[in-house]
Amino acid sequence: MIREVGHQTAPTAHAFRPGVPAAMERDAPLLELADISKHFGATKALSDVSIAFEAGKTHCVLGENGAGKSTIGKIIAGLYPPDAGSLRLDGRAIRFANPRQARAAGIAVVYQELSLAPDLSIRANIWLGSETGKGPWSSLDRRHEMSRVAEVMARLGLDVDSETPVRQLPAGLQQLVEIGKSLMCSPRVIVFDEPTAMLGAVEKERFFSILMTLRDSGIATILITHHMDDVMRAGDRVTVMRNGRHIESFDLDGSLDGDDVLERLTGQRQILQQRRDNHAPWGGTLLEIDVPAADGRRTLAIRKGEIAGLYGVLGCGAQELIEGLVGLKQPAHARYRLEGKAYQPRSPNDALRHGVGYLPAGRQSNGILPQRSIKENLMLTQLRHISAFGCLSRSAENEHAAQLLTQSTVKYGGLADSIESLSGGNQQKVLLARAMASARNFLVLEEPTAGVDIGAKQQIHERVRAAAAKGLTVLLLSSDLPENISLCDTVYTLYQGHVVNRYDKPDESCQAHIVGDVLGQQEVTT
Amino acid sequence: MSNKALPMSTTPKPAAAAMALPRLQDVILPLVIVLIAIVAGLIEPSFMSVDNMLNLARQLVPLLIISIGQSFTIMRGGLDLSMSSVLSLSGVAGVLLMPDAGIGAGLAVMLLIGVAAGLVSGLVIAWFKASPLVITLGMLSVTQALALILSNGVPIYAVPPAYVDAVGFGNIAGVPIMVWIALALALLAAFVLRHTIFGRYIYALGSNESAAAKSGINVKLYTALVYAVSGLCAGVAAIVLTAWVSSAQPVAAPSLTLQSIAAVVLGGVALTGGSGTIWQVFLGVLVLSLLSNVMNITGVSAYFQTLIVGVVIIIAVILDRFRRN
To answer: Whole-model pTM?
Structure first.
């Protein structure tokens, strides 16, 4: 299956010891990448990248979007062949023609977009692709399958009936099934591509503890991520990537803190907690949300120009509050008042007419119109203002669009270019501009910076702060706690459908308290 | 191109470069059309005659009108399988009314029935989030049955001669009136898609319905409108067809629906929705009609014609996959 290749592909013959002081003793790496380069068309995704991964270590590959870290994962997984350079497993050169060969060699990948069949059971999903039969008509031995699945599930601490359809599991458990699937090939290397992107705080903790178990069993676990928190929480060693280049690799031994790593990542020291403090004085109450609290009911009064965050784990009820506000659902337990009058939109269309801007989570599934131009994507909520009797004015539209894009610091070629010609961060800025343009009364943001790089994240935050300073009210639903703390004037914590606490002007010292709230560990004093 | 070029000149926008030259996929179909025409002219010189050209223009009118309606539903990310039978029902009902109520009332009824049938399909699809395939299949059966019931299953030949002479065989500036009707409809459709909010929302809904809905687009309203348009086109096609064949057939042109889907795909409109132009639809219709015309005048048997059209459609879809990859 695996074609042995010589070393002729490696342009240089020097011994491969990346970034390790000679004095330090290091085990022979399990998997080595040597001088890997990869082009996509004219874009150089990777240039001369060399990394060594050891067994029994969690190695984080950290970089912004477009840094080339996902490409590394895909080359290891056998999805793409490298243009130049070589891979070595146990010191032997390997080259995979497809992911199946990589699996056979003991390299498994857990992708961000889960590859599960939602209607099949956990058992069937875990076995998918590992079925023991030879041809399409060979029968499946259910008892053997069940016992093997029970083994895998025990290893992951997954305590659910293995006949449950995967669709019925929450996202966090679905990911465990995906990991279980990867364990079926008895892997020696597991690559996790942005594993924490869709997990809440509790699920993240569970994921990390499983990651440690796998690591301790001798597997080389590779974590591809752009979250500093993941690195600090789980990494034994980290490789920093920038612009397709390997910047440096170093061990995380407790002497480094997040800011040190961030400095090496971006090449400059960042001020993570950049708070806004020069906002205009708040106006009166704009929006009142009447919600259940542990001791009866409580009204969240959100003022003009305030940025308010709703924070909690999956299923805490924050999602329902937001969906009610934008007209996607009628909330069962919440009532809204907008400027003192009862407010309950029947649809997002109705909410739009009330001057509510909405940036939904999920850029691909709920955000962009993939085949359409930047301009059409941007102007989707604005068409009524640039038309007469349903006919669009092209000149007014172009002028308006160019203005919005400049305000939002979007880097683009032309208005008529496809939205997909933009980077993820710039796409997100377009979507933010689209939502903000229709926000006369207030703006609802769901995961506004998920999957964008640090630079774009800061620009998005600045843009939201600037709008709030001019009097726009913003509601934030984000699973990123540092984002809540740095962006919001007020953070409300939720747990099991109840509002737990309110934090005004939160800072880092609130973090432990907030996490306690949302995990239900906080005694609520009445 | 050269790596020694000045930095200034090495940064032309790729989009600008692509726009200067027409893309291969945009010229391939016109080239095929010219090729078919040249070959046909060489085999059968009468192909190039003015008579045959006018004949070809007449022949493609019903398919063009139906395909325009069909393309709206496809760009929206749907499909309308009921168009042929809505056409039949419109034709039968309108022609039945004409002797008593007058030509104008008959025409109005044809258009109204088309819009009503489309609107019902559209409302059901929009409100119940139902599959367009199944709902329009149901509508096909309902309208077909109504057409048969109204006509007692036999063609109606009592069509006012004034109407037949004008719409079916009249000319303006040497061009048949029915061709003018199709042309006007095509221009109107192109305008709606390019320059109106409705057009923009059709593409948005076809491209990503969830994103469109969450941006505040009234999904139900615009979905219903899209099918009203396809119904309206079936009504217009009924006007043209009943005048041309001087009768209302209860089963008027059953293959027209599938041919319209084929023409839309052949023209390069993505079946998944979210893109496409009326120009592409026109090219697709032209290729199918041209093939059929050429095979008619060269005496290819009807059975072989069906076979060849089927093969052309399958090849077109395969080519489309390559083009997208």
So the answer is: 0.76
